[in-house]
């Protein structure tokens, strides 16, 4: 047994203040990591939708080139249905022609930010080649 001359005993371990500070620092770090993960998942979803919209616009451009610019009112119906299925019911696709240049625009709502709907748009230009 160890005896101390002044009667004080040595305490070993951590104080409650040290434990509370450690838990606080770890909590802030974990909350930051969770926020980054949430943001990364949102960005991944947004980029996935952007890729899908680009794919649909490029499909319309290629189909338009292959058809030689024929009437597209009936041809766009199944493509519009696919765009709405993939990007939401409010998604639209349009084809506008100016001489030999076609502008294909796909628009959709990407969600809310600060209580405002965020409208996303992809525009692809195609040229009718003879």
Overview of this protein structure:
It is a single chain. By secondary structure, this protein is α+β, with helices and mostly antiparallel strands. It has one domain. 49% of the residues lie in helices and 25% in strands. The chain has 2 helices and 3 strands, in the order H-H-E-E-E. It has helices spanning 16-67, 76-87; strands spanning 92-98, 101-113, 116-127. The chain has a 3-stranded antiparallel β-sheet with strand order 1-2-3. Helix 1 packs antiparallel against helix 2 (76-87). The longest helix is centred in the first third of the chain and has 52 residues, at 16-67. The chain is rod-shaped, with a radius of gyration of 30 Å. The N and C termini lie far apart (101 Å). The model has no long low-confidence stretch (mean pLDDT 84).
Provide a concise account of the structure shown:
This protein has 130 residues and is of the alpha+beta class. It contains 2 helices and 3 strands, in the order ααβββ. It is 49% helix and 25% strand.
Write the layout of secondary structure elements.
Layout: H1 16-67, H2 76-87, E1 92-98, E2 101-113, E3 116-127
Antiparallel strand pairs: 1-2, 2-3
Helix pairs in contact: 1-2
For the CA atoms, what is the radius of gyration? 30 Å
Helical residues, percent: 40-55%
**What is the succession of H and E elements?**
HHEEE
* Number of individual domains: 1
What's the tally of helices? Answer: 2
> Hey, roughly how much beta strand do the residues contain?
15-25%
Main β-sheet description: 3 strands, antiparallel
Distance between the termini: 101 Å
Uncertain runs are none
For the biggest β-sheet, the strand order reads 1-2-3
Describe the global form.
rod-shaped
Number of strands: 3
- Report the structural category: alpha+beta
């Amino acid at each position: 047994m160890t005896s101390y001359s002044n009667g004080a005993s040595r305490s070993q371990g951590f104080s409650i203040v040290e434990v509370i500070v450690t838990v606080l620092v770890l909590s802030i770090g974990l909350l930051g990591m969770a926020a980054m993960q949430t943001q990364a998942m949102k960005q991944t979803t947004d980029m996935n939708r952007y890729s899908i919209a680009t794919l649909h616009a490029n499909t319309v451009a290629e189909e338009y080139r292959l058809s030689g610019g024929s009437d597209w009112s009936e041809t766009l119906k199944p493509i519009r249905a696919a765009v709405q299925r993939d990007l939401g019911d409010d998604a639209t696709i349009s084809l506008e022609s100016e001489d030999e240049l076609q502008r294909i625009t796909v628009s959709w709502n990407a969600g809310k930010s600060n209580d405002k709907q965020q409208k996303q748009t992809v525009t692809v230009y195609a040229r009718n080649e003879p």
